[in-house]
Amino acid sequence: MPLTLRVGLIGCGDWGRNHARVLSRLGVLEAVGDQTPERAALFAREFDCADIGTETLLNSPEIDAVVIAAAPHEQAALALRALRAGKHVLVEKPMAMNAADAENLCDAGQVAGRVAMTGLIMQFHPGFIALKRLIRGGALGRLRRIEARRMGFGKFFAGVDVLWDLAPHDLSMQMSLVGRSPVAGSVHYAVVHSDLPDAAEIALDYGGGLSASIQLSRISSVKARSFTVIGAEGTAVFDDLAAPPNQLVLALHDGSPRPVLFPAQAPLDAEINHFLACIRDGSTPVADFRFGRDVLKALANIPLAEVSATDLPEGLVDSRFLPCAIRAVP
User: Would you state the pLDDT for residue 154?
Assistant: First the structure.
């Protein structure tokens, strides 16, 4: 494998721009493609790369790897085509919009023999990595409860509900910490602004006396990105919105809370560097397609129950947003 890889980017939206910025800075961005030619042309000028279109990009022998940050409902098909064309693939979450497509991608990745990775970016957050290190070192003792909150007022992607948009982050974090999928669960959700779930509360049982919850909202004025782990010996809180050094705090039951320091690194930089390193040395990605499939299968298997917005926990639905006009974005 050559030292300098040539990477193509499919998807020139907001998150695609973040990928392009990192790939360009690393000197590996070769070309871009998008269903809107004007956006691809803009990226090509901004990041000094070729605009060759999605079809050419997928089939070009000059492209070693493809990063896919397209519309959610397009990503599985694009990733499948890239693998069949012999490319290494990093596809943004959700890697598929149903468990069957996720399973097909997983199979295709194994057949292709290429690095196949999904963009579960929180796996690369240095705060979460530090939290995992604490727990695996036994700092909290036996785990009893995990509580996650991911709330705010976000974008509404066409055909994507709050569960498939946001839940993979926290579900993947829980499953990574615990080392297994939940054995049971339930979802209460409310349809408020769109024709899909806009706010939800997930209850999970991981077995062995460990329960968990995930609160999600894209229609809340309360912005939250917290992840709390409670064990027999103490509690750790990872708050991505807190100011350093309080993003990760450990509180043992017999002592005062204290911040846990960790090195600063942009998670997307770490994710892309990991993808490139796996291509170069042939190692298996932290967030490979098998893990991405397991996360989506766990999500798909949770029974859903619609409730009134007022039946969800306080803060998940902000009535002040109800008059706003929501436009689905590509």
Answer: 80
